[in-house]
Amino acid sequence: MGAEDFDRLWAVHEIRQLAYRYAFAQDSRDMELLLSLWAETNEPAEPPVIDIHAVRKNAERWFSKGATIHFVGNHIVELAGPGEASGSVYCWAALDFGEEFVDQLILYQDRYVHRDGRWLFLDRRHLLWYGAERERNPMRQDPAGWPHGYTGRGPLPDELPSYRAWREREGRPRGRDDATN
User: How far apart are CA 87 and CA 79, in angstroms?
Assistant: First the structure.
């Protein structure tokens, strides 16, 4: 493998990390991480496209939901040239809206740019396969008591430091008062 092949593989690796970091930033309510993933642009994109302007405008609203879980699946990356790439990313999002719990299957169509020595999102087009409400909200279960119990609510997301800090800043109570979890 030559240096050019290695550079291409490393670029794909770094680009895939963007999708993983986006999911983790959303789920852990880490605004600093979320903002760090985006390239600056002059003009805001139109929905359903997400860019740095949409993140700044909507992140607090996105974060105001209950717990979220974004699971990143297939991720195809196409390198278009020096400093430009595109990709398609599958994502399963589990969203706690309180009384309602929704599963979404999403396809993100991304554009990436390489700036200041790192890959960033230029924009993400959020396309929904479907959203479906679950019959029961799994975040409203009694504590699992892991490792002795296999079903029930676990300690996440409150165990994530950035989520806990966000919750405390916002004056939000824990999902359930389940310190035994």
Answer: 9
pLDDT of residue 173: 78
pLDDT of 177 above 80: no
CA distances to 104, 119, 138, 168 from 33, rounded to whole Å, are 23, 14, 27, 18
Q: Which residues contact 67 (CB under 8 A, 6 or more apart)?
A: 27, 96, 139, 156, 157, 175
Instruction: For the domain covering 3-129, report its CATH number.
Output: 3.10.450.50
Q: Which residue has the tokens 């409203």?
A: 140
Whether residue 67 contacts residue 156, with contact meaning beta carbons closer than 8 Å, is answered with yes
For residue range 66-79, list pLDDT tens digits in order.
Answer: 899 999 999 999 99
Place of tokens 């020595």: 117
CA distances from 135 to 91, 120, 170 (A): 21, 38, 29
Domain boundaries, the chain: 3-129
pLDDT given at position 180: 32
Q: Percentage of the chain with pLDDT > 70?
A: 96
Letter for the amino acid at 15?
Answer: I
